[in-house]
Amino acid sequence: MKILLLGDASNYHRALSAGLAALGHDVTLASDGGAWMRTGRDIDISRPRAGKLAGAIYWLKLRSMLARDLRGYDVVQLVSPSFVELRPSRLRPLFDRLAAANGSVFLTALGTDSTYVRVLTGPNPPLRYSEWHAGPELSAWSRTPEARFDAWTSRELASYTDYVYDRVDGVVSALYEYHEVVRAARPDLPLAYGGLPIDLSAIPAAPGRSAADTFKIYLAAHRGREQEKGADILFPLVRAFAADHSREVSLLTPPNMPYADFLRFLGRTDLIVDQLYSYTPATSALLAMASGALAVTGCEPEYMRFIGESAPLPIINPSPQAPEAFLSELERLLREPERTADMRVAARAFVEKHHAAPTVAARFIDFWNKVKS
Predict the structure, then answer these.
(1) pTM, full prediction
(2) d(CA 200, CA 19)
(3) 295 and 288 in contact (C-beta within 8 Å)?
(4) Which of 36, 49, 106, 329 is the most exposed place for a label (fewest CB within 10 A)?
């Protein structure tokens, strides 16, 4: 099958392309490399500058690429409705040309879009909590300028997003949360769970730790997204914990870094403090687990049932209702090194079972074939 993956986020489509290629498919990834992440791609579609004139030039460039490089594929998988950095009025004709020049067009439910925000801030959200709401109330973060609530729910962007959802052949979800939102918003739209693909060939299992090493905890929120991820709550708790265990624990707080550097860094980490509001382990947590580290991240019962797991998983799941409770798990990690070592092995095995790139790619292939048949 000839496949175009258009756009990327957190290396998702790049890892998916590796899994699809391993299954024998002809895959092309066109993306901007995730800006500072500098992730790999086959065709660069970066927008060089901001501004209206630059946007017009960029739009013409993409139209030319559609006539030359982005046509003739059996399947196109879009990273989001806003698959390139343009206004909805510019995106809509590009989407139409893309759909006309290729076979089936699918959407990856991978990140925030207008549908996601509308559902989670509406009257009956399908999740008990999220970064956008806590119970029936909007979250404090959702009311900050960084959340961009007005932009996500603007008539222009919401209308364009609906236009794309109305016309794609189906949606593949990256996380349980996105799956539930799409199912609630578009019950008649073909939908499948893909999961997060992890290219394990690029992540060797970490060697065992020396007994003399301190326990290295990585505070992992991307700069500028701390409140969205709950880092404003989790990080002070972990800093106080580290201060109380200064001989045993060291904290790592590097800035945002390119993807390749991030992978190397994770190999020196024992535990990553990732997210408070997630139901599932997301990309940073899974990459850390693949490296043999442990993760403070989502692992709610709904997610475990969704993936068919009943036994406890090697994940520390913080609760938004009682976020300090996970500190007892950190205490146990320090007190029981043999159990901690077993959990590190189990963390890698969990990623191998559920998130190896070829496993996720096979879910995409099965869904595409089912929808197209």
Answers:
(1) 0.94
(2) 10
(3) yes
(4) 49
